Each structure stands twice: as C-alpha cells, then as structure tokens.
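Continuing the batch. This is chain 6 of the set; chains 1 through 5 are on the previous pages. Same settings as before, nothing changed between runs. Recording input and output for traceability.
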Amino acid sequence: MAGILAWFWNERFWLPHNVTWADLKSTEEATFPQVEDLYLAFPLAFCIFMIRMVFERFIAKPCALGLKVQANGPRKAQPNAILEKVFTAITKHPDEKRLEGLSKQLDWDVRSIQRWFRQRRNQEKPSTLRRFCESLWRFTFYLYIFTYGARLLKKSPWVWNTRLCWTGYPYQPLMPEMHYYYMLQLSYYWSLMFSQFIDIKRKDFTIMFTHHIIAVILITLSYTVNFIRVGVLTMCLHDVVDSVLEAAKMANYCKCQKLCDFLFLSFAVIFMITRLGLYPLWVLNTAIFELPEAVGGFPSLTIFIILLLVLQVLHCFWSYLIVKAAYKAILKGKAGKWNPLHAKDDRSDIESSSDEEPTTAPHSKTSHSSATTNGTSGTNGTNGYLTGGNSAEEH
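Output for chain 6:
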C-alpha cells in the first residue's frame, strides 16, 4: 500500500517543477495542507448526516406542519393481488397487450387498470412533507456555508484579481478558516454521496451523482496540491444559488405560488451569472491561462482543467433546462411547477392528480360499454377521472 500511495502521489506529476512534498510539510512558522487531513472528512460526513436526521425530525417537520404543508402522500391503490404481483414481479409500466390481458382476467376496463398502476407507482413517491424537510435542511446548510465562504472572500484580495491566487504558490500558508471551510465542504459532499441512495429519487440521479463525484475529486486534489484559494472561489460561486433554489421549492410546497415564481426566476438569473459568467471568467481563466503563466505547466494541471471543464458542461446542460423551464413559466405562468436541477421534482413526480379527486370503483367492461354508449365516457366516473390523469401524466 505504501508503494501504491508513493506511486500515486508522485511529486513530479502533482507539483510544479523543483517542488517536493517535503517542501510542503507543516512547520511551526507555517501550516500547509496535508493528505492526512482528508481522513477527517469521513467522521465529519457521518456527523453531518446525523445532524440532518435530527434537524429534519425536530426542526423541519414542526416547521412544515406549522406552515400547513400536506403531510399525507399520494392516495393508495386499492388492494388487488393479481395486479400487485404484476407490478412487483413483472413491470410497473404494462404495455397495451398486457393491459388487454389483465382486462379480460379481471373483467375491468383498460382505463381502470391504467389508473391502478398510476396510483400504485405514486405510492412509492415521497410526500410533500418529506420533500419540504429535505429542502429546509439543504437551504439551511447552503445558506450557512455560502455566508461563511462569502466572509472569507470578502477579506481576500484575490477574489477581484485572480492572478493573486498564484502569488507565492505553492508556498501559501493554510489559514484555519480555509481549512474549516474545505473540510466542511468535503464532508458534506461525502455525506451526499451516500445519502442520495436513500434520498428522494429524481430523474437526473446519474447527472447529480456524477457532479458529486467530480466535486469530491476536485476538493480532495485541490486541497492536497494547495489550490486552496481558487478552490474557495469555485465552491462559493456554486453555493450562492443553491439556497435560492431550495427556498423556491419550499415556497412551492407551501403553495405560495407568487413567491415561488419570484424565487425561481431569481435562481435562474443568479445561476446564469455565476455558472455561465463568473465561473468561466474567474475559475476557468485562472486555471487554464494564469496558473501556467505564474508557475509553469505541470502534468496534474491537465486533470484539474478537464474536471473543471466537465463541470462547465453540466452547467450548460442545467442552464438549458432552466431556460426551458423559464420559457414554460412565461407561457403558462407555472414557474413553480417544474424544478430545473432535479427534473420532475415537484408535482410532476405525481403521475396523476389522483390525490385530489374522488375515488371511484373500477369499471367492468359492461359498465364501460354502457357509459360509452350514453356518450359520457369522457366526463363521468372512471373514464372521466382517467382522462384527467392521462393529461397530467403527459404534462
């Protein structure tokens, strides 16, 4: 293991020319980042996860109930052993052929079976209360970490002149405030790496997982090679918008539509400015051009540039989703109905509006035929209900 670590942390690869790890050992006069410091992130990640559990249970949940956030989840589908077996063992989205077979077997019309599967899928979706608790926790953490990072940047001259990020590099002492900020950020991302498997599942799970992996790698490597200044700048630029998004979600869960619209549009503007404007202008520019000019090129710089560019690709993808959502908001006045960074995060997670409409018994084929004959299949009973459900699902 020692040999593998020595090979991996080859100083000719990671450090500028004529710099060794021995040169960056902490002394009584100056403290420098050490690889061993990174081990602290694992117990801290566990502590953050436990703090989150306590926060959601004893702070977020009472706040949600006080704001009258809906506590119950989607309406449950009526028990049916045959359909349950198909749902759990075969498919959650039966095709037309299977629907016809189940229709004959149960003597139900196809629309009733479609409704049952929609309701059954919705049973596995989290309640609005749980969503609110998760958003309040993230809002609180993001607001705290951004405020702390902004205070660091406020008294740092290199925030307005990024060339100063490399003055004296790599012999830049590590300040205690920056060490705390880095460890907290790394611990939080490690906690997300594991908690996202039990968190609310979203359509962009893979993209967010990729983002978390890149974030952990960048924070770890930038700390090790003392890219602390540009690292703090990068993380603070990312944090500035996250609390606004979570606030917009909470406003949506509380049915404060006007506030949600305002926060969502504010989020869109801030996201575009920070991720498509300041991030390339400050972070990419200083890493790609100013660093080589200041200290010369070295092999590991290529890795950092690639990872930073991958982040920018994700920013562009998310920006496309935001513009798309804002366009829909302008046309339909529904800015709070769609979450750009976690697609289908809010009401669109519920495939039909079944929790808002009266329950009706499944229609047999006979009753379905009778309703069709009377010309009421689009407005009454099961068929009228399912027509609305299908519209919601398509939307």
